[in-house]
Amino acid sequence: xxxxxxxxxxxxxxxxxxxxxxxxxxxxxxxxxxxxxxxxxxxxxxxxxxxxxxxxxxxxxxxxxxxxxxxxxxxxxxxxxxxxxxxxxxxxxxxxxxxxxxxxxxxxxxxxxxxxxxxxxxxxxxxxxxxxxxxxxxxxxxxxxxxxxxxxxxxxxxxxxxxxxxxxxxxxxxxxxxxxxxxxxxxxxxxxxxxxxxxxxxxxxxxxxxxxxxxxxxxxxxxxxxxxxxxxxxxxxxxxxxxxxxxxxxxxxxxxxxxxxxxxxxxxxxxxxxxxxxxxxxxxxxxxxxxxxxxxxxxxxxxxxxxxxxxxxxxxxxxxxxxxxxxxxxxxxxxxxxxxxxxxxxxxxxxxxxxxxxxxxxxxxxxxxxxxxxxxxxxxxxxxxxxxxxxxxxxxxxxxxxxxxxxxxxxxxxxxxxxxxxxxxxxxxxxxxxxxxxxxxxxxxxxxxxxxxxxxxxxxxxxxx
Length: 465
What we know:
By secondary structure, the chain is α/β, with parallel strands linked by helices. The chain has 14 helices and 13 strands. It has helices at residues 10-18, 24-42, 50-65, 109-116, 159-166, 183-189, 223-233, 277-290, 301-326, 333-343, 347-367, 400-403, 409-412, 441-453, and strands at 45-48, 77-81, 120-125, 172-177, 192-195, 215-220, 264-267, 294-296, 373-377, 390-393, 396-399, 418-423, 430-436. The strands form two sheets. Strands 1-3-2-4-6-5-12-13-9-7-8 form an eleven-stranded mixed beta sheet, with helices on both faces. The protein has a two-stranded antiparallel ribbon with strand order 10-11. The relative contact order is 0.14. The mean pLDDT is 96.
């Protein structure tokens, strides 16, 4: 074959493996070799599960020789954010404290489903501590680094996931998204990312952050790969009370459907403020390609972001109270201080935030009676420098950490499905959110695929490794 396994998409790897043009073991070894060669720069991985991966790949190759079915992701290497339970590893969740936990006795549901589809787990990925992070800078493991410029952030908290996929170490990685933690790394690292509808994909045996906001989902270098992973992971799970979907809605066969009849609108007001020129340009390119001229305004989006902060910090604080009491000095100080502040938020504010959340969700859902898709920036800028604490926008100095997710929080706050698509600007990519109504991941993926086919959205080759 003219391509090396490391340069192939997940769909190409699976096709080659099933047709015995490539072995699963060769695809796995290619990924392990690329990790060994480039992760010294990227710092995307915290654990490499080489022995497990080789054993799984060998079993796939043996099954193919025996004429058995091996699944749509046969031989595809993937990795997961280290808040997923991986059998035999302590679930770090980016923290120092969790390293004292015993090894997990069982994989997370989504890992089990990926491997049931033939995928091969090659490791666990760096992340912001306890997922309370937008930068990808972990004080315990060091920062994950941007594959297009290692002096820059990956975004967080799924920073290792963005780095590993953007750097082509693996074609697919799994992350989590509470306030933007899949979409922000996708934007900075130039990958496609899916934050599904709240409740669509099981979170069983993953370390939580904010139970009422947490989503799990894939990052990939192409829309087809994103959809293949998503389809493999769908289905109800009694081990996650939020995972209520009773049927699987396959998306891969639908990707080629015409999107010309879809009603596409641009998010106005709040979503057109606090943007650097590159974010404005990215949204404009996507809107032009889709013929979108209508603008809609999500009502009270700024209040939605504020309410999301209140719910995030109070639920997060409640989860970590015991750790805060017993081991405060083992936290990242920035994470610790925000959790302590959350523990002191008056209950009346939380009650108001939850009531507003219900109102806001109803108002936003009304918009989908007249539109099918809403476009919005994923981040206000391309990736900032590592260690950068502020940026200046319209003459105002703003802190980097809280403002990276300014445009993602009002969306995940009400659990809408979003595909983040990378627009390959120079010198760095930046993402645009394709937002759909609840349970309509298929529509968001179809739009993303159309943009990819037009060349407007694409995962650029890594320039920094």
